[in-house]
Amino acid sequence: MANHHGDFIWYELLTSDADAAARFYGAVTGWQTRAAQGTDRDYRIFGSRGEDVGGLMALPADAARAGMRPTWLGYVAVDNVDATADEIVRAGGTEHMQPTDIPGIGRFAMLADPQGVPFYVMRGVSDGTSTAFDQSQFGHCHWNELATSDPTAALAFYQARFGWEKGDAMPMGEMGEYRFLQHRGQTIGAVMKRMPEGPPPAWMFYFGTEDIDAAAKAVPGNGGTIHYGPAEVPGGVFIIVASDPQGALFGLVGPRKS
């Protein structure tokens, strides 16, 4: 695996209606959807300009019964899945899915940090490099944002597990600060305190779009909901925070063309 320990390497949508979700994201982001090969699950791959950027599958019935709602989850590359999973549990995290092999793909586990935010860790079997996170390409993830109940504890947790570093911070008044995350010299996202009336602690992922205003029309035009934006952020680009028709939160980021 050419990716480094601590890299975001994949994004996965767990949803209550895979067919409808595929249509929605195709209309909003331009992603193509195809069936994954070599698995007996109905797992689908989102692609952008011939490159794989994420996955899509039905929310498992047991997870839905336990109260899990449609959501996007991120995969973080690690050198050793079993050792990382053990370390996360010892640090106060939770193991939701024990380390498991996917033949021909790699070994992975689903965990949660001490504040209850779920994510995957994975070690791939190939030497290929994932470009699912690539800030230079539209259709790929450009930003990984954690809204959590305890930013200080969360930062310490992820720093110790994945080697992420604290970058600069922007003040947010009573909300505290918006603290940038750096990994191997690149700013990959940020950590912030969750809004008191907002969703539970979670990671949210912002995908690059060529035209934020066109995306802002496409979201509600295809049954989604915009919760914030378009709003300008540093760098001269604009963001949208939205939910798809099944309720999964996601973000879009890109330029304004008009």
UniProtKB/TrEMBL annotation:
Coiled coil: none annotated. It holds the Pfam family Glyoxalase. Keywords: Lyase. GO terms for molecular function: lyase activity. It comes from the Bacteria. CDD domains: SgaA_N_like. SUPFAM superfamilies: Glyoxalase/Bleomycin resistance protein/Dihydroxybiphenyl dioxygenase (SSF54593). Residues 7-124, 137-255 form the VOC domain. Transmembrane segments: none annotated. This is Lactoylglutathione lyase family protein. It comes from Microvirga lotononidis.
